[in-house]
Design goal:
The structure is a homodimer. Chain A is of the alpha/beta class. Chain A folds into two domains: about 270 residues, Zn peptidases (Aminopeptidase), CATH 3.40.630.10; about 160 residues, Glucose Oxidase, domain 1 (3-Layer(bba) Sandwich), CATH 3.50.30.30. Helix content of chain A is about 40%, strand content about 25%. The first copy, chain A, is built from 14 helices and 16 strands. Chain A has an eight-stranded mixed sheet with strand order 1-10-12-11-13-16-14-15, with helices on both faces. In chain A, strands 3-2-9-5-6-7-8-4 form an eight-stranded mixed sheet. In chain A, strand 5, helix 5 and strand 6 form a beta-alpha-beta unit. In chain A, helix 2 packs across helix 8 and helix 8 crosses helix 14. The longest helix of chain A is centred in the first third of the chain and has 36 residues. The first copy, chain A, is elongated and about 90 Å long.
Chain lengths: ~475, ~475
């Protein structure tokens, strides 16, 4: 009996070792294919340089949807389709302008000298979803506050002013997404919290630690309890300059922005499917979002996630992989200012009634991969952890708890689907996030490709072993 | 007795926990100081933009030495000095020129059409230490070989030709230093191995997977058994173009290079010392190399290592750290084409007779930190490993066997000093390595600073606990 047990154990051990070798060899094959014949970089060049910005409702959105559908077909999808959803249609409506001036009183004119920054241009950009100033603009004194606490302290001074939130991006976090979460509340809540006390408009320090002066946009959220007021982000150098002037002078800023909503319009998730041979009704989803802000090429955010998604499909096909389960490659609509694509995808998945066993998202830039994040049951997490040594040689040396993405969140909420994320290095992301510097040139070919390699490895393992 | 033992164990446990908390807090303090008040980035700007290239023997070398000495003093070194060493003095001697032409025979002239690339400029750069072509240049037919094996097969065809080593940088290695080691032999040995069979000159495909056409220089090593022949590196696009032409045509290349050695001259290691309070005769060395190739700003290679080194000194002083052991901050001379600085440092250390307990080098670019490498005894490695959890939150999540650097190698060989290296992410390094694109703009402020943070943490731990 003992001998039999031992033999069985040895046999099981041998099978495990064999399986690991097979998995390791497969992942190497995927990696070699992507690093040698990869198309992600050239696809990204096309998306960013030939199509460019693609905010929900824009002509760029329509072009990018067509591009995505065609590429899914060319890359070998068994089936590719557009999943319709209504998307919000916010437009900037023209160039955002801000000029700072110290306007001397008549009595002061005789005294001189005066500050020399009358009508100094500030580099600003209206926040997404914000209202415009009206054609006459808004010209008011600036009240700087460094935090919401300071806003509360100075609430009696707010009325009629332009509130300038100069909250600094925290340099001491190593993971810059923590700094973003920390500072992001000023972009999200700042306008309404200032409007509560009668502010006329808001200027927010850009959520970045870049060394340049590019302003960073992003969605704001008005609280319906208060008047909607215009809001812009300002570049870091101009924020520092403005703050410096305010130490000794009263500064007026003239703002002119033109943001407004047009009626909701039709957008689409772009979906390619690679049908499973054994369990076609078990679905693994991988995706990024196709929309970008209107002021940039959206190369890292999230062109990278889109071309990585398609690259995994292309590479699987190129090496002749036959998945057991169905894999869906998705370019989600409208992540930036509505999440209508992610919501629609979950809604349709629920209707369809198939089993969604995992969703993976890449939406943290096309930088060098460092970790895979995972959200699921403890048992599932343990299984996920067991694959770490297989994936680590390709860059994701850490397998961490907590993973997902805005677009796959709804799937998790409605169907309890476990979610995972590619976590690339975060140091450079907020240099370019939602700014005009988020361009193709900021993406490195190999870093982009390695992101696809690591996600492909995870998808292969989940496809093979289930979850 | 049991109770006493238990009490002792608990006590020891409490001390360990307390020490870990103290270490963790100290490392956070160092990190906050460097990420908030860091000067490394601005120092690098000065070194690259105001001084620029600084090959051994060049005016840039002299300027950078003075800069380094002054900065060591300003950053708080108890003592700073220049350690003299003779350095080789190779000069490029002018612009390297290569033109490719298909020279039709007289009989062919009547037939036409002819290839249109007569006198097409190729982007080349002479290899470091290589001889020049002479003022008349060398104009010969090109023989392409893709490997040394192919050279051996074609050895009878080599005589009188320009041998073109078109060995490709291997894309499938994840760690690009493996690709570099693999391809690097063609730069190092290629000229002499071709000269052995009578080649007139050598063109080497650049050791890079960049998407641009910048040629990458670097030292070659002549084998004294064979004639020295001129050698250049060629940009990747031109290498592909040349290779494509050679499929259907005989191509002549006219080369003109002017490299030559002037007599050895005086260079210096720049050393700053922070004197230990308890064991001043135990030395920890940290450094990078101050020299760079002449065709670039040497921002990543190795301006980054130099300014990180000085930043650790500055930050230790700024937070009031009092080391137990002496720490030496070293900018080494002449790493690129002679290693005279590293050799001199080891020689002087041996004479001085103090105990060198660790040497750390940063010479793999100022990219985001990923690992610390270590070479020492097994016992020392275990101690090194025990610190991993303290350092990992700052980026070096891997502690790996094998660490050091060219400049600290001699110290290891003469005094058996354990050596360590900062291993940043490798994906971007060979895009810019030894090419004109190794400029300040290619360095990210936070990535650079985090390198200093991780090395500072290691130095603190070795200083506190010994090794």
């Amino acid at each position: 009996m003992r001998k039999l047990l031992l033999a069985l154990l040895l046999c099981a051990g041998a099978i495990t070792v064999f399986a690991q070798k097979e998995d390791s060899a497969f992942i190497k094959k995927i990696s070699d294919e992507i690093l040698t014949n990869g198309k992600a970089y050239e696809n990204l060049r096309h998306l960013t340089k030939k199509i460019g910005a693609r905010l929900a409702g824009s002509p760029g959105m329509v072009k990018s949807e067509q591009w995505g559908l065609k590429l899914m077909q060319e890359s070998g999808a068994d089936k590719a389709w557009m999943q319709e959803c209504m998307v919000p249609h916010w437009v900037r409506g023209g160039k955002d302008v801000a000029k700072a001036g110290y306007i001397p009183l008549r009595s002061e004119v005789k005294k001189g000298p005066y500050p020399t920054f009358i009508n100094k241009d500030l580099d600003v950009i209206a926040l997404g979803n914000s209202i415009g100033t009206g054609k006459n603009g808004i010209s008011e004194s600036v009240l700087q506050v460094n935090s919401f606490d300071e806003l509360e302290q100075k609430k009696d001074l707010v009325k009629g002013k332009i509130v300038f939130y100069n909250y600094k991006f925290n340099d001491t976090y190593i993971n810059t997404f923590l700094s973003y979460r920390d500072a992001g509340q000023y972009r999200g809540q700042g306008p309404s919290r200032a409007a509560k006390y009668g502010a006329k408009a808001v200027i927010v320090r850009s959520m970045s630690h870049a060394a340049d002066n590019n302003p960073h946009t992003g969605a704001t959220r008005y609280d319906s309890a208060y008047t909607k007021i215009p809001a812009v982000a300002i570049g870091l150098r101009d924020a520092d300059w403005l703050s410096e002037q305010l130490k000794t002078a009263e500064v007026k800023v003239s703002l002119k922005t033109n943001g407004h909503f047009l009626p909701d319009t039709i957008g689409h998730n772009i979906i390619g499917e690679f049908r499973g041979s054994e369990f076609p009704d078990e679905i693994i989803t991988v995706g990024g979002h196709l929309d970008s802000w209107d002021n940039c090429e959206g190369a890292h955010d999230d062109g990278a996630g889109c071309v990585q998604t398609i690259e995994i499909l292309r590479a699987f096909k190129a090496i002749g992989y036959k998945p057991k389960r169905s894999i869906r490659f998705v370019l989600f609509a409208n992540e930036e200012n509505g999440l209508r694509g992610g919501n629609k995808y979950a809604e349709e998945a629920q209707k369809e009634g198939k089993k969604h066993i995992l969703a993976v998202e890449s939406d943290a830039g096309g930088f060098t991969p460092r970790a895979l994040g995972f959200s699921g049951s403890d048992e599932q997490f343990q299984q996920f952890l067991s694959w770490k040594e297989l994936v680590a040689p390709y860059g994701c040396t850490e397998f961490v708890k907590g993973g997902g993405g805005a677009d796959i969140g709804p799937l998790n909420r409605t169907l309890k689907t476990p979610t995972a994320s590619l976590n690339p290095d975060t140091q450079r992301y907020f240099d370019i996030h939602h700014a005009r510097s988020d361009v193709f040139e900021a993406v490195n070919k190999r870093e982009l490709e390695l992101g696809a390699v690591n996600m492909a490895a995870l998808i292969y393992l989940v496809d093979k072993y289930g979850l």
